[in-house]
């Protein structure tokens, strides 16, 4: 279902949730933000793929449990969206905080994962981060990744400064905010992030967090 077009410069959002009342509530909240606009909704994976193809959103807000009630439908959809539309950021918004689900969502291409009891400010911040091609995890979901991958015994391959950058990436901070925390320029942060991705052989910030957790360095 199409809502309406978004003026230039707006973050275009598609909502994927099988509960209409949830979509209505999210639309009401997000459309109050000057830089955000909900441009489409879907309640099934098939509808979601069609709406995304038609509306070209910046961000898809995705519940993992859709009409079938199975986790795999949302996870499969996440993977299809990120493979067919790599320019679109998928942010999981779900009721379930399960370590395995968080990790698999990242493996399937999600840029972030938040739980539905998140407050409005944090949700909006997460959407904006994903729109900037950044990963975003609150403290609970970041901890879930760490718990799931802590068993690895590999030694860290990152420098002390790079480890600090990874830790701040796991908290969902932007390059600008990381630079402010570490007293370095945003350009220097981008340099570190590129090096980290090269060393860990990954392509996204979310994968950085996942691989660093697997190495046990978070």
From TrEMBL:
InterPro entries: CheY-like_superfamily (IPR011006), NreC/VraR/RcsB-like_REC (IPR058245), Sig_transdc_resp-reg_C-effctor (IPR016032), Sig_transdc_resp-reg_receiver (IPR001789), Tscrpt_reg_LuxR_C (IPR000792), WalR-like (IPR039420). This is DNA-binding NarL/FixJ family response regulator. Coiled coil: none annotated. NCBIfam families: respo_reg_MadR. GO terms for molecular function: DNA binding. Transmembrane segments: none annotated. The keyword rRNA-binding does not apply. The modification 4-aspartylphosphate is found at residue 63. Keywords: DNA-binding, Phosphoprotein. Residues 12-131 form the Response regulatory domain. Residues 151-216 form the HTH luxR-type domain. SMART domains: HTH_LUXR, REC. The keyword Zinc does not apply. It comes from the Bacteria.
């Amino acid at each position: 279902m199409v809502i309406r077009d978004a003026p230039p410069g707006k973050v275009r959002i598609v909502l994927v949730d099988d509960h209409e009342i949830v979509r209505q509530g999210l639309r009401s909240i997000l459309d109050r933000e000057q830089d955000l606009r909900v441009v489409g909704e879907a309640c099934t994976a098939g509808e979601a793929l069609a709406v995304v193809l038609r509306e070209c959103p910046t961000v898809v807000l995705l519940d993992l449990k859709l009409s079938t009630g199975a986790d795999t439908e949302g996870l499969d959809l996440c993977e299809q969206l990120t493979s067919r539309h790599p320019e679109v950021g998928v942010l999981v918004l779900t009721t379930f905080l399960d370590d395995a689900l968080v990790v698999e969502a990242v493996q399937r291409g999600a840029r972030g994962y938040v739980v539905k009891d998140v407050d409005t400010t944090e949700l909006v911040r997460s959407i904006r981060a994903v729109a900037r091609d950044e990963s975003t995890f609150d403290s609970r979901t970041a901890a879930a990744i760490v718990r799931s991958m802590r068993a690895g015994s590999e030694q860290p391959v990152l420098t002390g400064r790079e480890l600090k950058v990874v830790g701040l990436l796991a908290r969902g901070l932007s390059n600008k905010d990381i630079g402010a925390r570490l007293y370095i320029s945003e350009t220097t942060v981008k340099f570190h992030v590129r090096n980290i991705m090269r060393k860990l052989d990954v392509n996204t910030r979310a994968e950085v967090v996942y691989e660093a957790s697997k190495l046990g360095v978070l």
